Amino acid sequence: MHPDRVERLVDVAPGVRLWAEDVAGPGEPLLLVMDADASGRYWPDALVARLAERHHVILYDHRDTGRSTWAFDDQPYSVGDLAVDAVMVLDAFAVSRAHVVGTGMGGEIAQLLLLDHPDRLLSATVLGSTVLGGNTALPGPDPALVRMWAEVDDPRDDRAELAWRVTHRELLCGPGVPFDLLAARALEQRVIDHTGHHLPPSAHVHAERTGPERAAELATVAIPTLVVEAPDDPVLPPPHAEHLARAIPGARLVRVPGMGHAITPDLAAPLAATVLDHTTAARGVGQRVAQRERCSGRQVP
């Protein structure tokens, strides 16, 4: 492990611990929140390194992924609980406010943080996501992915599981950039090795989701928010990102050409540049918000 990357375990509930990693860097903290049933190890190293040039980066495994506790059957939880987990990860690293970048379900968690914990955020970046509660009027996932999701819990040996994951990842990446089969295989093997077994994570499919009634609350968001549009996203294709950006006052919508639902190493540089432009612009806004809160007598960490 790189000397500037420090691992720790974070207790978030009785008998439930999350694996987390602190990537040393200058500047304000930035929390990376992964997609459903996905370890934090899926964040491309190249993206983490670019972000760590300007930020103290924190990433982690959700419950029932990676090295975190797998116990959904005994201790079921909601996606709202996973948002509270994100706050507890910040607490564990003594971070009062952070930029948050969420992808897929992590984008849903970022929206919940905007609504329920705005005092902990400097900015939010949402990618590969849609407005809370979803929108059935917008295009749905690629049918090939839907068929694969129905197979997620089918019994497979370690070789078959690796092959299934590589095929799944190829679909998630979409057609926007050439698919690197060897790199995808190495990544999936890395995640399996990190986890310590090849059992498929699928708990988040069963976790209770936030209802559409909360979508209207997004109109109250004052934290600087960036919505990244992935034109080749096979899960939540356009115009999901545009619909989300319209729901949040002042949200910026930026398209990253070639991007699908999964983040490939090829797109680490343009995505990092997009995120860093946003966090830099948000810095002054966050400072003014904190100053207003102090002047109004509200306690700010």
How would you describe the overall organization of this protein?
The chain is α/β, with parallel strands linked by helices and 301 residues long. Helices cover 36% and strands 16% of the residues. The chain has a single domain, classed as Alpha/Beta hydrolase fold, catalytic domain (Rossmann fold, 3-Layer(aba) Sandwich), CATH 3.40.50. Strands 1-2-4-3-5-6-7-8 form an 8-stranded mixed sheet, with helices on both faces. Strand 7, helix 7 and strand 8 form a beta-alpha-beta unit.
Which terms would index this structure?
single chain, 301 residues, alpha/beta, Rossmann fold, 8 helices, 36% helix
Q: How many structural domains?
A: 1
> Can you tell me the overall shape?
globular
Strand content: 15-25%
Helical/strand content category: alpha/beta
Oligomer: single chain
Reading the helices and strands in chain order gives: EEEHEHEHEHHHEHEH
The CATH class is Alpha Beta
Helix content: 25-40%
Summarize the structure.
By secondary structure, the protein is α/β, with parallel strands linked by helices.
What's the layout of helices and strands?
Blueprint: E1 5-13, E2 16-23, E3 29-33, H1 45-52, E4 56-60, H2 79-92, E5 98-103, H3 105-116, E6 121-127, H4 143-149, H5 158-173, H6 181-195, E7 225-229, H7 240-247, E8 252-255, H8 268-295
Parallel strand pairs: 3-4, 3-5, 5-6, 6-7, 7-8
Antiparallel strand pairs: 1-2, 2-4
